[in-house]
Design a protein that fits this description.
The chain has 1 helix and 2 strands, in the order E-E-H. It has 51 residues and is largely without helices or strands.
Length: 51
Amino acid sequence: MKKLVPIEEGDFYLTPEGYRCFTEQYLIKRGYCCESGCRHCPYGFDNKKQY
């Protein structure tokens, strides 16, 4: 089961389109890569290489 990581200031920002974009700070706190191609992935995952 995945643990709940509380959101703090600096964990995300809103894109011009209105979406939440998680920062590297949050992704490191979360502790794993979701393999979704996050913009600020600190784990080096690149979904473009997968297909």
